[in-house]
Design brief:
Strand content: 15-25%
Helix content: 25-40%
Shape: flat
Largest sheet: 9 strands, mixed
Structural class: alpha/beta
Oligomer: single chain
Number of helices: 27
Length: 835
Amino acid sequence: MARRFTEPDALSREIVQALSQGDAQAALQLADCRLGHDRAGRGAREHMLRSAALYRLGESKLAERESERARQLDPRELSVLALSLADTAEEIRLSAARPLLTMATAPLALRRRALETLLEVNSVEMDLHRSRDWLHGWVYWRLGQPLSCCVDQAGEPLWTTLLPDPAHPLAAEANAAQLSVYLGAGGPCHVSFHEDPAGDSIAKAGPYVSSQFASGAPAQRPASPTASSLLVIVPAFEDVDATRQCLESLLAQIDVPFAWRVIIVNDASPNRDLNDLLFFYEAMERFELISNSKNVGFSSSINIALGHRRSGEDVVLLNSDAVLPAGALLRLRASAYGSDDIGTVTPLSNNGEQCSFPLKNQNNLMHEVSDIAHWDAAAATCGALNVVDMPNGVGFCLFIKAELIQRLGGLSDDYGRGYYEDVDFCLKARRLGFRNVCAIGIVVGHWGSRSFRADKFALVHRNLGRLEARFPGYKLEFAAYLARDPLAVWRRRILRALPPAPTDVLLLADISTLGHLLDFRARLLREAGLKVRIMTIERQGEEAVVCFHESVAARSDAVRFSIEGEPGALEGYMRAMGLQRVELATPLDPHGVVGQILTTLEIATDLLILDAGPSSRSLLAMTATRPGIRATPNVKAGPRLAHSSRLAAHGGAVDDEVRRLRALNTVTYRFAAQAAEGNRRVMWEAEGDPAATLHWTGVRPALLMPVWTGASHEFACAVAHALRERGAPSLLVFGPLIETAPLLRMGNVEPVPYREDWELEEGLRLHQVRAAILPYRTMMPEPEHDLLLKCAIPCAFVDFSGRLLRGRRGDCRLLPDWSDAICARNIASWYMRLS
């Protein structure tokens, strides 16, 4: 069932057709092929279709994972919403029904189903929006029931009876009436709905605040461009511990040379402990408490607090799960008034969207509050009061100048309980000529919100659509900003200013070493309880640099040093790491800067054999005449560090005292043992039971290519061609894919992407893989190789160990001096025998 890689839209149609015909296995294979085409990381629709196929195959847990991934990729995709509407979980159905109800482009039948779903749970559904001083929208309620509306503003209720509109497209499913309310400047407006005006309300909305009320009268604008005081607004709802840390960090803001105060907004929290905590802080100086009668969300809580803002006050919007470092308020204000045209300031944070540090757009876990203090100290040293322009600020900690509050008022109520109201405000500010900037010299901690939960899907969908409608060019501009990443240079400077984390083992390689294998080795050592970092030697233009990483795959957290220009700084950094051992995966000149540093520091150095490539062969060539060197098979190093001697400074070789070779896996161990011990023959004892049988009934050939190289691609093309000539089923290719690759244009190849180990294992089972092929001549990919052993899948591989491998029953061993064509013909014959 192979399909051409250049037909993604046709593949999507075939997936739907296969599902409608009841062929779930074919739909799964087509969905994987379509996802292989989608290198941009989208494919939400195909993930939902894949989820439907998995449900029909009885794989409910995997199906739920696929559904969740689709929602994360694009919660606004119509097919995602449609399939979520049929989910068995009520909260998923409701979260899909709300955006479908308001989506004008959705099929009418879907909108009707969505409204039915909502009214099964709620008596009334609303789609209300604030536009400056007006509240307007539609109200839906169950057929056959009267409905009265009460608009209460400043304690003056106004009652009206809602009359259904029979011409509304959804009139057959429910009553629908249009509602328009003038808000004016009389204060917050609350809307409630009643079946009987004398009875209790069955639904409520609000408070809604007009722009006049939120902004105050123009005559109250401060005369000076620099505000004289500061108001910090902290909406609170859940997470007692995080809120306590937030308020404690505010108490720690001492020596602030201007007046400031805090308004905490209790957004109708049901948590008794949180309520007690907020009452405790209300009694303290600087702290005031406002308690909402109903949960209204972030933006409405902010606007209620802004109604109590005094003339001339700047504002800081602060999440209750954010933690301020010492002096943060003073430095935020100084950054804001560094230029007259700055309107908002957002600090760096461990979890701050585009302002995240050290990895952008990620939640960099904060283990202790002290982590932020260390990061902030380094940022203050490097960044001082420097700022970098951004399209928009981020609301976890957002400093807003008083002048901007005066002109714009509060946050838009159109975004409901959360998401994108801060972006909306910042983009409006930019239209007025104000800049949104990131303060480089401040790092604020942010634990990450646990609010919204199941509602997040619907809120993100609805609010992002509204934002894009108001600011059509924002999406492309923000994508371009992330690609350019002007904060990257500052992140690197701050990382260098941080003291290095204590490190047990340093994996040292040049950039040509396959990062896939280095990361796997680091993972094994970390699982054994060791602290590991990776150091790569690279060239950037004419300059040689060393980079320290946690992972080669995530390179944006690298700390860089020039080898020739900063030898002293490099040595000091490595000394501060407290290294116990270096595992050297590439030949190193001991007379060079890095070799001399290792010698000076007297760090124990082992040789790490990752593959049979040029680097490993050069390392083994150094040891071939030294009988004292021995290989050790303990791939997963224990928590104790074995002693080995330092690197010697003798002609680029290693000292005779170096006693240990470390190998990535059994295959590389045998390869290393042959070179290190004078060609002593050692048979490979396969991990697991050599007589084990396949865990499922397999029918398909699969090629595992986690690392895409030119040589592996040519090898794979030869295999696909040979299998096609023998009439074998289409070849599944697991791994990252390149759209223009000739392999994927062959008629008998189906791509199957995967990200995690468990996804590969489930993919092998779901696609009924009978045999696997590893297209590498100098390495054994891990953890893919271990997984094949675990699942007892027969494997074809190039034996670079020099015939030392016995292998398992059913495996196909290929010799390294065979051409691709010979290897491919042998693989095709082997597979046909197995099948």
